Amino acid sequence: MTFNRSDDGGFRVVSGHRVAVTTGRSQRRTVDLAVIGGGPAGAATAIRAARAGASVVVFEKGVHGRDKVCGDGLTPRAVGALEELGIDLRDAHRIRGLRMIAGSKVRELDWPTTDRFPDHGAVWPRRRLDAALIDAASEAGAEVVWDAEAMPVLEGDRVVGVQADGCQVDAAMTVVAAGAQGSVARLLGADRIPDEPFGLAIRTYAATPRHADAHLEACLSLRDEHGTPIPGYGWMFPAGDGTVNIGVGALSTMKGFKKLNLNTLLDAYRRVVQDDWGLGPDLERPRAWRLPMSAQRRHGPGWVAIGDAAGLINPMNGEGIDYGLESGMLAADLFLDDPASAPARYDRLVGERFDGFLRTGRRFSFLIGHPWILRPGLRLSVSTDAIAHITLAVMGNLVDNTTPGAAGKVLWLADKTLGLADPVLRKTRATA
Ligand SMILES: Cc1cc2nc3c(=O)[nH]c(=O)nc-3n(C[C@H](O)[C@H](O)[C@H](O)COP(=O)(O)OP(=O)(O)OC[C@H]3O[C@@H](n4cnc5c(N)ncnc54)[C@H](O)[C@@H]3O)c2cc1C
After folding, report:
1. Which of 130, 139, 153, 357 has its CA 20 to 30 A from that of 391?
2. Alpha carbon 377 to chain centroid distance?
3. What is the spatial distance between Cα 230 and Cα 233, in angstroms, rounded to a whole number?
4. Predicted local confidence at residue 13, as pLDDT
5. Cα(108)–Cα(216) distance, rounded to whole angstroms?
6. Which residue numbers in the chain have pLDDT < 70?
7. Is residue 195 exposed (0-12), middle (13-18) or buried (19+ Cβ within 10 Å)?
8. How many Å apart are CA 279 and CA 336, to the nearest integer?
């Protein structure tokens, strides 16, 4: 089934893109899948399902070409997911590896060659990455409705579809891909878990002669303007287009998190990298956003949550594009296989893939929230080549609980040890 309204109310076409208009008239359609949110996660679901012949409508409250506050860094894992979706990456800037800086120690390593993921990452400004993804969804036959804020429609505890601008779309399954939890999550009881950590990050762009560098740079020993170490990192992600994405992020487990001024932190970091990168002035006002790292629920009758809406961000590096793409594809595949059982199976399978690793990451974030652990921990993270390779694997989202080799073993051990220490770490967590 296609979604075929034009100028007669409901939706109209502006500059080649369909946008919603309010008519006051009640409109009703039926599709297989309704998707709330046109970021990477929602687009991945739409591409996969529409290519298989399902009727899909995506509601996006922004307009075509919208931007998302992000570092624009694509791990090798994200590149693998984009390749799986058949996205042409020639517009992205190819990245060979990561430069990690902890105090005076600098280690530059290439991404490892594995049989699971490509050996390179990329930097792709979100305005262009997200446009490429959502255009691929449209080309696959998904209907994309721009400028339309959507809410799930509940009958009892079942989501039966989506309402946007006075129109209702009934759907066999609704996919919540609305990013960091807001009103949609609140309605479905899918907010973040209050006691679990989350992150905040800010970024801007600046011109630099080093825009074509082949390595991401992460400064792990981030300090605020008073010299206090921050659990988080500062990044320089060269975009290959004359600019670099410069940003900082911090975890909510640190002392004084509520009072943390991200603009000041970014200014302090900028001063550190200014000369090395020959930075020009900010090309836009720095903008901040949330990094959700947990969700109270990620499925229910008739719906699933994917990507940030499901809290799928790695607490150890703040990256979530890869998990968004993977969870989006998984939701579509399970729906295509059997719509009735898809939500419950999605919750189980996404849990098997990510829960253990993300739990380790959250425990780790409580650990580094303690400054007396953070400082020596940072020195250790890049102290030897072997340890730096493990840090690299963690920073590149290349490890999870099933990873073979040293990184996988260390993660397994870390999970066990942190599991024992977790109650103490939480009890002694710094007061925000
Ligand atoms: C400063 C910062 C830097 C980051 N850097 C990186 C990085 O370098 N690499 C990385 O992998 N990750 C990074 N992340 C995380 C990454 O941005 C997210 O994990 C990723 O965007 C998740 O994709 P998503 O599709 O789930 O959500 P989003 O990209 O947030 O997309 C959600 C979409 O839903 C729309 N929406 C919301 N509510 C509604 C509604 N009710 N109706 C219709 N539409 C709605 C929004 O407009 C938005 O377009 C960073 C995050 C921040 C804040």
Report:
1. 130
2. 25
3. 8
4. 46
5. 9
6. 1-27, 371-373, 375, 378, 400-408, 428-432
7. exposed
8. 48
Query: What pLDDT was estimated at residue 368?
Result: 74
Mutate to test the pocket of ligand 1, among 11, 19, 61 (most ligand atoms within 8 A of CB): 61
CA-nearest residue, atom 12 of ligand 1: 319
Angstrom distances, CA of residue 103 to CA of 107, 378, 381:
11, 8, 11
Q: DSSP letter string over 311-371?
A: T---TTT---HHHHHHHHHHHHHHHHH-TTTHHHHHHHHHHHHHHHHHHHHHHHHHHHTSH
Q: So what's the pLDDT on residue 431?
A: 54
Residue 354 CA to ligand 1 center (angstroms) comes to 18
Judge contact between 243 and 209, C-beta under 8 A. Answer: no
Give 240-255 pLDDT, tens digit per residue: 999 999 999 999 988 8
Distance CA 326, CA 321 (A): 9
Q: What's the gap in Å between 309 CA and the centre of ligand 1?
A: 9
Report how far ligand 1's centroid is from the alpha carbon of 317 (Å). 15
Alpha carbon dihedral 265, 268, 272, 274, in 10-degree steps, equals: 100
> C-alpha distances in angstroms, 388 versus 48, 112, 326, 384?
36, 12, 27, 6
| Rounded-to-5 percentages of helix, strand, coil across the chain | 35, 25, 40
- Residue 85 is encoded by which pair of tokens? 């979706």
Contact 187, 330 (CB under 8 A): no
Q: What's the one-letter identity of residue 139?
A: E
Which residue's alpha carbon is at the smallest distance from atom 38 of ligand 1? 178
Burial call 224-243: b when 16+ CB within 10 Å, e when fewer: beeeebbbbbbbbbbbbbeb
Q: Which two tokens stand for residue 96?
A: 């060979």
